[in-house]
Please model this.
Amino acid sequence: MTKLKNKAVNTIVKGFLKKSKRNFRFAMISMTIAVWGIIVITSIINGFDRILVESIVNFFPHIIVSGEFNEEHNDAEETFKFNYGGAMLSFRGKVEFIQLIEFDESEFFSNTLIKGNFDDGIVIGKDLAEKLNAEIGSTIAVFKAKGIIPIFRNYKVSGIFQSGVYSFDSNIILFKNVDDEKEFSGIILKNPYKPEIFKKKNLKGYNAITWKESNEVLTQALEVDSLIAFIVTFFIVLMSGFSISNSITFSILTRKREIGIIRSLGLKTGEISKIFIRETLIISILSFFAGFFTGFFTVKLLDFIKIPLPKGIFYLEYLPVNMNWINVIIALMLNISIAFIFSLITTRNILKFDVMEALRDDE
Model:
């Protein structure tokens, strides 16, 4: 008798769930769009952060030491001497205030060289070359100060570099100069993302600063970006949670008679609640993967077409994207958690109706 009862209940439940699927279509679409938005938004935020950090560690010394540093360490790839300061240039009636980096023998800056060489003159950024309408072979007048004495010199452009960051490519000149005395030593690390470890271990007797310390505002901004990405993720998923709650409420209210029949056959409120929760979790997982694949291909498309950004407003030439798998996992866990919490609360509250009343109202 009990087996027959359970079989009847299971049949009613299966039919009930099959008919109620249409009530969750909007919730599924809403959750899919939410995950899609999370993937794209966090990828753009991560893209800006990644490009900004990489542009610094690929263009500036990872640690700057005041004075000379000639020690050899396994964690350091290269050490060179350099000067860094402001200057002014003049070319064909155009005047620009720039930053001049003078360095001795080094292969570090060669990574960004796209034309020419460092041996025959100065190397200017791609955007600065376009702004001045200068090219390799052009002669540029550079004014700089040595102490309180202004120095004027004509330089021939021997190369063009491109870092990918507009503020660098439009504002910096590189000059290989082995003759003048240098004030600083630059250290290039094998692992540029942990410069504080090298400094603590090997530079106790030196006046040194890491790229993170010299860009403290930047590192704090990166932490804020991570927090923003998490907040955006949370609230987008939270909004989808309300659509789940509405779908469950509508499904229950429109099928009170069927639920009343199931309960009259002996199924408890908690067991009926589990049916809705289980169905909601399945929908949330399916929605996550639908949103994930949609977001994944959107990120790939954005990375392929490279949407240009207004120069002078953003420091990059095009919209950067970088999908972080940690954020994907966080989105999955939040998606499932929100679906479970909202379905649990909603079903427990809505299912508190009188069985006989539900059956009598639909007679």
In short: The chain is about 55% helix and 20% strand. The longest strand covers residues 76-91. Residues 63-191 form one domain.
